[in-house]
Each structure stands twice: as C-alpha cells, then as structure tokens.
Amino acid sequence: MKPVARSSFASLVIFVNDINDHPPIFQEAVYRVDISEDIPKGSYIKGVSATDGDSGQNANLRYSLVSGNSLGWFAISENSGLVTSAAELDREIASQIVLNISAKDQGLQPKISYTKLIVNINDVNDQIPTFTQSTYHISLTEHSPAGSELVVLSATDSDLGANGTVRFSFDPETPVSIQNKFRLDAVSGRLSTATELDREEEGFYLLHIKATDAGTPPLYSICKVNITLQDANDNSPVFYPVQYFANIKENEPSGSFVTTVTASDPDLGRNGTVKYAITAGDSYKFHINSNSGRITTLVPLDREEKTSYQLQVTATDGGGLRSNTQAIVTVTVVDTQDNPPVFSQKEYSFVMFENVAVDTIIGTVSATTVDLNTNITYLIASGDQRGLFAIKGSTGQITASGLIDREEQAFYQLRVIARGGEVTGEALVNITVKDLNDNAPHFIHNVEHVSAVENWATGHQIFQAKASDPDEGTNGVVKYSLKQNPKGLFHIHERHGLITLTGPLEVTTSSYQVEVVASDLGVPQRTSSLILTISVYDVNDNAPVFDQLSYEVTILESEPVNSRFFKVEASDKDSGLNGEIVYDIVSGNTNDVFGIFPDGQFYIKAELDREVQDRYSLLVVAKDRAVEPLSANVNVTILLDDVNDNRPLFNSTNYVFHFEEEQERGSFVGLVFAEDKDFGPNSEVRYSFETPQPNFELNAISGALTSVSDFDGSCILCERKSMGKYSETCRVLDNHMHY
Predict the structure, then answer these.
(1) Which residues of 252-271 are buried (b: 16+ CB within 10 A; e: fewer)?
(2) 672/685 Cα distance (integer angstroms)
(3) pTM, rounded to two decimals
C-alpha cells in the first residue's frame, strides 16, 4: 500500500506584553473657563481629559491639582478629571486662578503630563461701597465764603465696572432745607458750602451721605458728617432797651443805685463778653460797673443844682467791637414836691389773636398827674426786643407793628413808661396771644421706611406714626387715618397713630406703600401726609417642591465620563437664600458613578457598564439655603441602554469531537457554543467557518456541526448578528490530530 501523506497544524498564540512607553496626553495644552463668583460650592467648572497609548495599569490615569489652588477653591476628581468648586469664590480676592493639573498613569515607572486650567472669575455686585470713615467731624469758621470745601468723601467698592462705580448723594434722612445749604459732587465726593453759614443762626449740622454703586440692584452705605461752625466776632453788642429812665431823690448818699443797662452779644467766648462804659454825660457824678452795667451815684445829687442828667453808655465785646447804638440813660432828681405820672393800673392785661394785621389795636394804658399843665407821653421801655408792638406817645394806645405768632411766643410783658415833664412813672402790660389754627400737623419726616416679616400675625405692630401740631386746644389735637391702604392690610389708631396688621403680608409683594394722613380738629382743618414704605422679608416657611413626582431617564452605557445628561428642577416660594435650592444624591448611587451639581444637573463620574448594572434608583434631595433649611426628596431612575461593547465568547477555546469514518452525510459531529453579554439584537450569535469547509456544515444559529464528506480539521468563526463588530475563532480538532 502506498503511504498516505498526512499533515497537522497547530495554533500559536503570542501575547505581547505592554511596557509603559507612552506618557498621558491631554486633549488641550491649556483649558480656559469663565465662571461667576457667586456659584455655589460643588458647581461644575471644567472637565479635563487625557489619553494614554499604553494599556492596563500603564494607561490607568489619575488626575490631581499640582499647584495654583492655595485658596482651596477647587477640587478635581482623581478618576475623571472633573474640576468643581470646593468653596465660595471671591473675585475681590482673586479674579483669575491658574490651576496646574497633572495626569499620572499607574505603571511601575509612572509617566506624568501636565496641563493648565485658567479660571477667570467674573464679578457680581456683592460688595457694598465702604466709606473710609463712618463719621466725619468737620470744623468751619462761620461766614466762610460759599463754595468753601469741607471734606472730600471717599468710598471704595471692590467690584468691577458698574458694580464698583460709586456715586454720592444726600440721604433722605437729611432734611431738604439743610441739603440746600451744601453742595455735594456726586462723582468726586467733594462736600462744600452753598452759602455763607451763620453760627448764631445754626451752630451745628448733621448730614447723612449715601454712597451707592451702579450695580443691579444697587448697594449702598451711609456715613455721617458732623459740621461745627466756629465763632467769628461778627456781632456787635446790642442794647435792649436803648432808653432808660430813672428817678432818684436828691441828697441820696453816694453809691445809691440808679439803674442797670443791658447789652447782649450772641458771639461765643470773649467775643460775646460785654464791657460797659459811660462815654458821654456827667460821668464824674456816676459810676458804671463795667461787667454788670449797674449804674450808681458817685456823689449826692442836688435838685437845685440840676434836675436831670443824661448819660450815654457804650458796650464793647472782647474782640473790640462796640455797640452801634448807644444806650441813653435819663436820670431825674426828684424831691417831695414832685408828682410823677401815675398809671390807672399798676399792671394791665390784654388778650389778642395771633397773626393780626399791623396797626391792630391791642389795648390802651393811661396815666395822670396832679400837675395839670404837664403833658404825658408814653413809650415802651422793655419786653419787646423784636419790635412787635408800638405805643402812641400821646394816647398810650398799644398796636401791633409786626407779625405776632403765638407758636413763637405766647406771652409778652411790656414795661411802659409815662413821662410828665422831668419825672416818669411806669406800669407793666401783660399781653396774651390767643391761638388760630395756622399750623398743620407736622411729621418729622415725610417719608419713612420699615421692615416687616411675612409671617407676622394679625394685630402685629408695624409703625408708630407721630405728628405734632404747635397750635392750642382742638387746633393742636391730631387724629390719624390711612389714605392709601393696599388691600386693606393695615389699620391705624385714630388718636395714637399706631399702625398694625389686619391680615397676612405677601412676600411676593416685596413692599407696600401706605399714605398716613394727620389732621387737626381746628377750623379750617389742616392736614399733612407721610408716605410709609413697608418692606416685606421672607420667612423660610416653604419647602422646595420638585416639578415631577419622580423622574426616569435612559442613557447609553457608552456616555463618556463628565458628560452632563439630565437635570432635575424644584421650586421654592420663599425668597433670597430661603428660596435658593441646592441638590444632592442621598442614596442609590452604587459605586458613585453619578454626580449632581448644585443646580440639579446630573453628570457621569465613572464609566458605566450595563452588563454590570443596568438600572439605578437614586434618591435626590433638594434643600434650600436657609439657616434652618427645608428639603424635599424625589426618586430618579436611570436606565442604561445597551451598546455593542461585548464580543461573543465560546464556552471553550478548543473543541474535540470523536467521529467515526464513513458516516452518512448529515451525521451529527458536535456542538459549539458562544455567549454575548450584550442585550437584545447585540447578544444574538451567528456561527460560520473562518474559511470554507467542504467536509462539514455548521448551523449558523444553533452551532451544530454535521458531516458532508470526509472530515478534515476546521476553524469556526463566531460573530454577532447585528454588527459583526466583534468575532472570536476556535479550532475543531479531529480524533486523530490535536493542534
């Protein structure tokens, strides 16, 4: 028999082991991002990513912040390279942060690469303008010319642009009448006088100045400027009265009292100190005390020598200014035969209404003398320094000579002199000024601001309105009412002016404006108004509410790390921090594969694999930022959709089938089996030969191997039906030869 040639073949599998010969490579050499300084802690900043051409641990990368994070504002995920905020940011401390980031593989001799992340921090209006001083104390000499500089105010605001642009203005706390006396440059802060200021009119001014930025909404602060006027010797002494009359008996001993003259000077200190001197007349017979103005005799006076003396007295202040009008003192020497005029009453009392016209008769005084040939003349000696009254010298009729206001002075006592020849008599005239309803009730400020809390109960006291009326009696009795009362939420006590709540306030209405009217009970009735602004502040009485009862989202298992894929949203009816919401994952986050930013945005923190876990049920909490926060929970279900990421795997790398020769065609040889962990069509397996085989048939679906003719060893290919992306081969060996 001729020898039959036989052959065999074997599979040689060569595994090439990786060496760590590739450094990580970042996608970008420099990353840049702009963020706002007011983002909450934990917010997304940037995702950095590097690749490594090696495999295994040599390509397993770890990220870290190498430098630039001395303030501790940022954190990086070691596994994913996701950079987030780790603390509250402040642009005023640093407006740009340069983070040096490393990517390091896990090889035995690791390789490291670096990149930079430049974080530009954008400004928000979070800085209040700040004065260099909270209170300024300024001294100015009175009568300094208009435009005299008092101070240049300075306020700083660390914000940028409009947020840091400061303008100065008078605060409404400074009355308009006071504001008009000063000029304030809105840009430079230069404060100067608008007119000459007189210390004797007003010696001290308190200004409230506001520094406001141009942000939205604007922020402001207030400082106080105390202005004290220094005295200048701008006033001469003024005598009142100017004319003095005194009777003295003849032969009175030296040192006898004659009268006292009085002059006043409104200046301060030595500028207002008055000295008196007799500058004309028989000064050798009289003496005046230079400090008190008391005049006494130096010698006994003889009526036969001279019946009357006239002295001129001058007043001089400590600064050398002399009185413009000198006092005239008439001294009459009388004996027992002299008969001075005698008034019909030692004291007269008259009543008048205020605001009467000039020349209105108030009353009449009358004096008589036993000397029938003597004419009597009358004059007002004192008690009317402002010259509001006049007396007819021949009749004693007293009239009004100026505007007499009861609120300025309600009672006057005049000393009236009657002269009959050389001798005089005197009487007191009491004038009582009766009230007219000539003053409206007066609020200290026409505009007021108060704060209220939304949960105050009915009856809670909001504000105490107070108006004063200087009139008398019913003319000065004030009652209160509300002219403007939004939604009838407020009540005012008619007599006391106390404003209280009648119903709940709404924080959605940030403020209410109430007009308070004060009315007197006079005829005609007079009124004035006050505008009260009530700002309503929030109480944290509303928990966050999610816009859905639950959420379900499906994503591909191949979604890259750091990608953002879904956002939950909750609302809170409160305002401010009470209404600001942050989110967190409480449970269900197996292997920490998902993250959530404070704004509710979900992102992927680690690689997903549906074949490991295909469903996640997360419990998410929404919490407000109040001091005592309220919260709400919601369930978020995340389903992973399959991608074709697993190749079919045979249940054995080698199959050995024993098959007798000369079997019929179609005889069963054996069964190969492969499995694919993917889902759906991606998991359906189809079988085929790697190269055509004339001796066997392979069922594409079941993997059954049957004979067609004489057997020869074959290689079987298993592939996915759907895409054929992955394949695996195995050898089928006959019972004679093994490879």
Answers:
(1) eeeeeebbbbbbebebbeeb
(2) 11
(3) 0.69
